[in-house]
Amino acid sequence: MTRQPGEFWRSERGSVTPMIIGFAAFLLVLVAVVVDASAAYLQRQGLTTLADGAALQGADLGSVGAYTDGIPEGRLTQSAEQVHTAVGQHLAAVGAYDTYPGLAHDVAVDPGAGVVTVTLRAPLDLPLAVPGVASDPVIVATGRAAVTVQR
């Protein structure tokens, strides 16, 4: 049995179309993942910068006793209440609540070590929806600071 010219091509007609559609779908998902990962990375970097600045502000403005008790050896002690106030004022002054809607912060003060730790949490608004990814991810960043005394 011999094939007529063109018979071979007619039998495989359209077999490339599903492969092209599958490849295009794969590329679209890949682009969405890269865009969303980039958005998450950039937001984390921004929150890390804010957390570092807030921790430095809290450690600096939350220091107490230097004027009344003199300068201690090592690190300055912090008042938890003053640190919380300084961190909140710093975040409001730099516009963090406007830049990151839903921003929440936690402040931990270790009076023995004189270390202030600020943790920021903000929801991430993903630019593109990727199937299988949580619809409301949260980005978390932490900053730590201590004011040391050098003589």
TrEMBL record:
Annotated ranges, domain Putative Flp pilus-assembly TadG-like N-terminal: 14-59
Membrane-spanning residues: 20-42
InterPro entries: Tad_N
Name of a matching Pfam family: Tad
Keyword field: Membrane, Transmembrane, Transmembrane helix
Annotated protein name in UniProt: Putative Flp pilus-assembly TadG-like N-terminal domain-containing protein
Species: Nocardioides daphniae
